[in-house]
Every structure is written in C-alpha cells, then in structure tokens.
Amino acid sequence: METFDQLLAESTRIHGHICAGQVIGVRMGMAGLERIGIAEPKGADRKKLYVVVEIDRCATDAIQSVTGCTLGKRSLRWLDFGIMAATFVNLDTGQAVRVTAREEARTLSESYCPAIADKYQRQLEAYKVMPLAELFTFQE
Question: What is the pLDDT along the chain (140 residues), one digit of tens a residue?
C-alpha cells in the first residue's frame, strides 16, 4: 500500500482541499484495511473489500481514495447516521472492523500541537501524529 503522505496527497487532490477530515479518513482507511488483512485494496484485494461509511463528509472522500471502493462499483455503501465512522469488511474471510473517530480527539489535539492557535489547523496537524488508540475506537 502507498504511504500515508502519498494517500493524503491523492485524497486532497480528489477532495479539492486538505482538511482534518481528510487526515482522519486516510488514517481510518489505512487502520481499517490493516485490521482486516487487506494489503492491496486497489489491486489484488479489490474484489475482497466492502466498506460502509456513516457520514457524507470529507472523511468519506478520503476513505474512497484509500480503498478504491466507490458507490458506482457497489463496493461502498453510505448509511447516513451522521457518525464519523466506517466499517471495513474482508469478503473472503468475513472479518470486519468498525472504526469510529473519537470526539475526545478534538480536545486532545491541543496537547499535540499547542503552538497552533487556529483550532482547525491544530486538529489537522495533530490528527497526523496522534496515536490510533486516541484518534479512533475499533469494534470487531
């Protein structure tokens, strides 16, 4: 799989701008894929992957760019629950994980980037380095 920086650059290009949602979506996608054993979501593993997103925001564009799943290919499904969450399913193994962004991450961003005054820029930068356990909740 591509690196975080490569995936974030591609996500930003597709979405049209960089934002904290892009960072969350890229990291969410990478973590979800790793936990279900998908190494090449846009290559050899593309027929093994199904994703359900629960929000129609920036992170969804990022998840789509990381996984290669789309509504048109019927490998991405959107359920409008208004939650920053996605479920990644390995269709071969039946393994699945739901990854949810933790609300506490917004407040925690202050401890990661205290020198950045603008809260949106601070969150964007903090989400790049915040440990996954502080940024997300994982449910099998």
Answer: 799 999 999 999 999 999 999 999 999 999 999 999 999 999 999 999 999 999 988 999 999 999 999 999 999 999 999 999 999 999 999 999 999 999 999 999 999 999 999 999 999 999 999 999 999 999 99
Q: Is 53 left (phi over 0), alpha (psi -120 to 50) or beta?
A: beta
Between the alpha carbon of residue 135 and those of residues 63, 74, 127, 139, the distances in Å are: 16, 28, 7, 14
Q: Closest Cα partner for 126 from 9, 54, 20?
A: 20
Strand partners of residue 137: 100
Give CA–CA dist 49/29, Å, rounded: 12
Q: If we measure between CA atoms, which residue out of 129, 88, 123, 128 comes closest to residue 109?
A: 123
